[in-house]
Amino acid sequence: MNVIEIENLSFAYEKQTILENINLQIQEHDFLAIIGPNGGGKSTLLKLILGINDYKQGSIKVLGKKPKQSLTHIGYVPQNTNVNTDFPIKVIEVVMMGHVDGKRPLFGYGKDEIACAMGALGQVGMADFAQTKIGSLSGGQRQRVMIARALCAHPRILILDEPTSSIDITGQREIYELLKVLNEHITIIVVSHDISVILEYANKAAHINKTLSYHDISDKHSTFHTHGNDEHFCEIELLQMLGAENCDTCTSIGSVTNIVPEPVEGKWRLKP
Amino acid sequence: MIEALQFDFMQNALLAGILVSFAAGIIGSLIVVNRMVFLAGGIAHTSYGGIGLAVYFGLPIFLGASLFAVGAALLIAALTLKKRHRMDTFIGLIWAVGMAIGVIFVDLTPGYNVDLMSYLFGSILAVSTEDLYFMAVLLAVILAVVTLCYRDILAVSYDSEYAGLRGVNVRFFYTLILILSALTVVIAIKVVGLILVIAMLTIPVYIAEKLSASLFTMMFLSGAIATLFTLVGLWMSYTYDLTSGASIIMVSALSLGLFLLFYRGR
User: Fold this and answer.
1) Integer angstrom CA distances of residue A166 from A15, A138, A141
2) A230: which of A106, A169, A214, B150 lies 20 to 30 Å off by Cα?
3) Which residues of B fall within a CB distance of 8 Å from A86?
4) In chain A, how long is the greatest CA-to-CA distance?
5) Residue A182 to residues A229, A237, B83, Cα–Cα distance (Å)
6) Nearest-neighbour CA in chain A from B216: distance (Å)
7) Do both A110 and A76 map to the same domain?
8) Where does the pLDDT of residue A237 fall: very low under 50, low under 70, confident under 90, or very high at 90 and above?
9) What span, in angstroms and rounded, lies between the C-alpha atoms of B91 and B163?
10) Range of the structural domain that residue A238 is part of
């Protein structure tokens, strides 16, 4: 089943075309990595899916409806969760922002809302920090809280914009491991720069640079021709492979090899 | 000081100080967490235009200043919601134009020599009973809004984009915060004057922010701290025969200095 269907979507700010003729089907329980250069249109596509920006050409269907009508089914984790850290707000209050409008008490929060928020915090392993001020958490912990906030509304799709951009390596791994677990029940879409990491977890990849090229990468070995488990590609190589035009994931790799920089000794290797 | 309390004007001054301090603490918290300090300063100065108009047309000063300040707040809200990155330019513009309008209308008023200084630096000893009613009603409205709409205001202040995605009317609450700020600024003009009001809206809030884990605590702690500063400032003003508004601000600033010196936490 397709949870998101995008057809012939184009988007422009004034005269500058950002996205051109995008077609994308995202299936239930996919883990989609959206990658591509800065300014390539990744965030714009997210904003279109979330209904923050309006599109004029093409169509987007989220669970069969227009984006703005499906907001309650989408959990969103925005970029830059390290801004505004002085703000006096407790972790539990941040998470409760995620509740969708429904019945609510005159003052404060309902018992069921608190229980639900604590549940979401438990899912991301942050239940012990419920009463902590958000500013005193580490970047990775704060990101978990933002994921809990998104989970609060029991979404069917979870969208994350650069979730690990300001987190150390261990923290990044932990976030992706968490997403992997959540992926058992929820479709996950991640925009990311940490390409080599995300591709380990994602089963689909979409490279966006005005146009979109789509890859099924669920079988990493056949896709990238690595020799063993320890081998990685450098990010430039991956980007070029995934962004290459007419790439059917295998045939164009040979020609791409000619233009990539010399791989770092030992670690990065591309099959000739 | 105790013997001074038998005078009506002194009782009024104390009451006004408490009412205004609480309003300033609560609204100041919202202004600080929303990064709208400069904006509040702009509205404070713009409201002098309302004072000038009120003098010229013979209206009550509070009414003129309130209407003008709310008008300025709405104008700023409309301009800045679309072009937030140009906010500083608009505020600077409205700031100066408002003051200019005030000065010109006072000039045009025949035979009336308004005491400009009392509006710039406050005249807490001249608070009337009607002023007190106005302050009390405004504080009641502010308390009602921040308790009933707490979660929406919190959501909009902390992360307005996300609040919008969750169905909170960001525009409405942003404008509401601005209008309440404008009205708070107007009552605070009576106590510390329109030039010094910005210190009253920020110094107690800054201290409270460091000590609070939630916006709610911060708002009420700010109110309490502001009240303390106002009362000590009034006492200094009475004892050493100093301008009350300036005394309150100096007490606040010195306390902030001491606080920062001894506060070693996060």
Assistant:
1) 33, 10, 11
2) A214
3) 209
4) 67
5) 24, 29, 38
6) 9
7) yes
8) low
9) 25
10) 228-272
